[in-house]
């Protein structure tokens, strides 16, 4: 079907043009223009092979905006009864044979559009129609949830009497039989209005690195079980790995996509070993030596191998992040309330919160959670002292403060909990008087700290300067001594 015979929405033309830019680098791709009916069903014009979503594909994630746009475009097109086909854009496929010798069509680009069209056909089939449906399997729970959500949304949006004709919906299918070219294309995707994130890319990178007899699908399910906790976890891991005097680096905090790909994909080593670096204690004299190995998982700053090693590393820290910051703690746990009420809210600084969470992740991965209450309190005192020192807390200010006092390095290089506590407790600072009086951020922060411990906040700035840190330290010591050690 010639291009002049297609009714092209500007949105899907943009998708097609974006695809075309990247597909130019694929040697000798097979390009065909076919009807959506031929792709969804098995007709004489169908491409040989079974459509399939590869393990490294991100979940189905189209939201209401994209669904509304698609249904609106379809409604407008079919109202006109045009003889020109509706153009849904380009679909990129990687065609290869599976272990049984059958042709498989991995969907590299087009999952979001194809899935939404399949949901629409499924809805119309329940109303008595008989549209063909692609036999696609979705592994991610997030995909299942979004499919259910968009099915319900389409029930509300479906125009009365919509006469959907898949014979009149056209797609351009671009097929490559080169796995490397398919992967490179996947990395560049920015279609459908939802760009692949850095986490999407590193997932695909490491699933692709898994060699038989290991199954990428198994590790894809492990990855997807993390839910939404990987994104904040990876950002904290960047802080922990970059903010060190041994090899100080900076990253684009507002858009860390390229830094995430570089650190957790491109810089990983092409080795199959699943290495975990842990503390070990050697006890005794020559000839009578015993070793105690830490039972923690992975070292935050350790070198990483591609494939299973990086996947397990990220899943370990994602689970640790959930336990430390997302799970509900006991109501009587003052350390938990400190985090929820002050770190998350009244301190009003995402930068300080990010450093605090990074420090606790690094601490728990190195020393475990037995002495977590003390670590929570003393790290809070040091990190959030910046709120008392400065009248305004900035992104650069937090990073410089971290590097000046080697906060993360001290956690990473201390041999035990006691050594780290000695350093944190020896830290001193001078409170800046500006902002203590009135109703600014600093004053609200101070009041929230006093309120947490059931104390009244001094009204005069000089009283706060002389009493704040002493009161804070006394309260910390009281709560630490009365809090039983516990691990989770």
Uncertain segments: none
Quaternary structure classification: single chain
Counted by DSSP, the helix tally is: 20
Write down how many β-strands occur, each being a DSSP E stretch of 2 or more residues: 8
Q: Percent of residues in beta strands?
A: 5-15%
C-alpha end-to-end distance = 62 Å
Helix and strand composition category: alpha/beta
Q: Tell me about the biggest sheet?
A: 6 strands, mixed
Morphology call: elongated
Overall mean confidence score, pLDDT? 87
> How much helical structure, as a percent, in the residues?
40-55%
Q: How many domains, in number, for the residues?
A: 3
Q: N-to-C SSE series?
A: EHEHEHEEHHEHHHHHEEHHHHHHHHHH
Description:
- This protein has 488 residues and is α/β, with parallel strands linked by helices.
- It folds into 3 domains: 3-190, no CATH class; 197-325, no CATH class; 328-488, no CATH class.
- It has 20 helices and 8 strands.
- Strand 7 (280-285) and strand 8 form a beta hairpin.
- The termini are far apart.
